[in-house]
């Protein structure tokens, strides 16, 4: 675990709010998120489908789809404001200092372009490499992400590769320009378990070699336990808990986090209890409850939870473990 003092802040997201223009007016999908990543640090962003993980990251890069926009908040990268910098400046950051691995390699790789050309593109654009230099680097990158026969693979089209290979190509593109920060959005979904583990190990290795920071987005807390330094748990577009990863496992506090952790099956569990999960579904955009967004599903819910929105507050005895829950906060005070 790294020293938490004196670290350089690389990414700093404050009160980020994203809205979708719907038939009944704007609906909030990301509701005042605070996140940060320090130099060399790996942050896991965890939460179930639809909680706003991808939109949060796309908004940082100003890649939000039509009718979805940032309504409030700031995001800075190495001290520079991502929301207000010019398009030209942003293009330099995107794919340069910040590498992206998008959620779905089937749709985000260009199906009619050879893999080699797709890896060379950012090198030619961001690093002003000649085509021949870029190809040498592309071979190096494919080797780095564990693709056998990289020279021949450069000629392949995406459909000629397996799902795991395509995912590795996406990671190679994300890493092409030696980014200071790699944002990987569910880079292993849809892959089988052994390949998922291989890709986690690969990123771990590369992080150590290249000294980059990583944001790893997932719904699978167990997968990233050995990879991340800190975890932010998202629920319905808000951070409900954040903590160093060991602390989160030792002392999960928000009822949602506890639910997520208890739905991770252990081999020692009797078969019937292995897949206990949280009942109910998250609120749809535009139908957020008035108080805590988790209240309708929460086993500990109290009257106040339906009235007010809890703030993310440090837990007693810890400066870097925070939870947004009235019940947890009250129990802490009482203890
Ligand atoms: N293009 C879009 N148009 C309308 N609604 C959208 C669009 N993209 C996302 N949403 C909605 O915004 C919310 C957040 O979506 P987002 O893709 O950020 O979720 P996610 O946490 O990445 O989920 P997943 O784990 O499934 O990838 C969801 O309710 C989703 O339905
Ligand atoms: Mg997503």
Write the layout of secondary structure elements.
Layout: E1 9-22, E2 25-38, E3 42-46, H1 53-60, E4 68-77, E5 80-81, H2 87-93, E6 98-101, H3 105-108, H4 115-126, H5 131-144, H6 150-153, H7 163-175, E7 181-185, H8 193-210, E8 213-218, E9 230-235, E10 238-244, H9 245-250, H10 255-262, E11 313-314, E12 322-323, H11 326-334
Parallel strand pairs: 3-8, 3-9, 6-7, 7-8
Antiparallel strand pairs: 1-2, 1-4, 4-5, 9-10, 10-12, 11-12
Helix pairs in contact: 4-5, 5-7
The structure holds adenosine-5'-triphosphate (ATP) and magnesium ion.
What does it look like?
There is one protein chain. The strands form two sheets. Strands 6-7-8-3-9-10-12-11 form an eight-stranded mixed beta sheet. Residues 269-276 have low confidence and may be disordered. The longest helix is centred in the middle third of the chain and has 18 residues, at 193-210. 31% of the residues lie in helices and 23% in strands. Helix 5 (131-144) packs across helix 7. It has eleven helices and twelve strands. It binds adenosine-5'-triphosphate and magnesium ion (MG). Magnesium ion binds next to helix 1. Residues 20, 29, 47, 49-55, 65, 68, 103, 186, 219, 285 line the site of adenosine-5'-triphosphate.
List key phrases describing it.
31% helix; globular; Rossmann fold; binds adenosine-5'-triphosphate; alpha/beta; 335 residues; four-stranded antiparallel β-sheet; 12 strands; binds magnesium ion
Which range does the strand content fall in?
Answer: 15-25%
User: What structural class is derived from the secondary structure elements?
Assistant: alpha/beta
Stretches where pLDDT is under 50 for at least 5 consecutive residues are: 269-276
The number of helical runs is: 11
The largest sheet, given as strand count, sense and whether it forms a barrel, is: 8 strands, mixed
Ligand catalogue = adenosine-5'-triphosphate, magnesium ion
CATH topology of the domain at 9-97 and 177-267 and 275-281 and 289-334: Rossmann fold
* CATH C-level of the domain at 9-97 and 177-267 and 275-281 and 289-334: Alpha Beta
Judging by the overall fold, what is the CATH architecture of the domain at 9-97 and 177-267 and 275-281 and 289-334?
3-Layer(aba) Sandwich
């Amino acid at each position: 675990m790294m020293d938490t003092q004196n670290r350089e802040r690389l990414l700093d997201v404050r009160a980020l709010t994203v809205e979708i223009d719907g038939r009944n007016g704007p609906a909030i999908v990301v509701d005042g998120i605070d996140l940060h990543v320090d130099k060399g640090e790996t942050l896991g962003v965890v939460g179930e489908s639809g909680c706003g993980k991808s939109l949060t990251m796309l908004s940082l890069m100003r890649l939000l789809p039509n009718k979805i926009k940032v309504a409030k908040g700031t995001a800075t990268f190495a001290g520079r404001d991502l929301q207000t910098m010019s398009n030209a400046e942003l293009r330099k950051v995107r794919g340069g200092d910040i590498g992206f691995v998008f959620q779905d390699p089937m749709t985000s790789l260009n199906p009619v372009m050879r893999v080699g050309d797709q890896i060379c593109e950012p090198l030619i654009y961001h690093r002003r490499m000649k085509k021949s230099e870029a190809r040498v680097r592309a071979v190096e990158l494919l080797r780095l992400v564990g693709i056998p026969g990289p020279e021949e693979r450069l000629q392949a089209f995406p459909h000629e590769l397996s799902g795991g290979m395509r995912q590795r190509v996406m990671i190679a593109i994300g890493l092409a320009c030696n980014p200071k920060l790699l944002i990987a959005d569910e880079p292993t979904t849809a892959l089988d378990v052994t390949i998922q583990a291989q890709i986690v190990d690969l990123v771990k290795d590369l992080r150590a070699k290249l000294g980059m920071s990583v944001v790893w987005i997932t719904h699978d807390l167990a997968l990233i336990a050995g990879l991340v330094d800190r975890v932010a748990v998202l629920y319905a577009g808000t951070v409900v808990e954040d903590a160093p990863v060991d602390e989160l496992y030792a002392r999960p506090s928000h009822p949602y986090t506890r639910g997520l952790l208890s739905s991770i099956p252990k081999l020692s569990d009797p078969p019937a209890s292995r897949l206990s999960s949280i009942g109910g579904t998250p609120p749809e955009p535009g139908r957020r409850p008035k108080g805590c967004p988790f209240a309708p599903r929460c086993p500990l819910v109290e009257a106040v939870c339906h009235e007010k929105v809890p703030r993310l507050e440090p837990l007693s005895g810890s400066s870097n473990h925070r939870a947004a829950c009235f019940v947890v906060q009250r129990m802490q005070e009482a203890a």
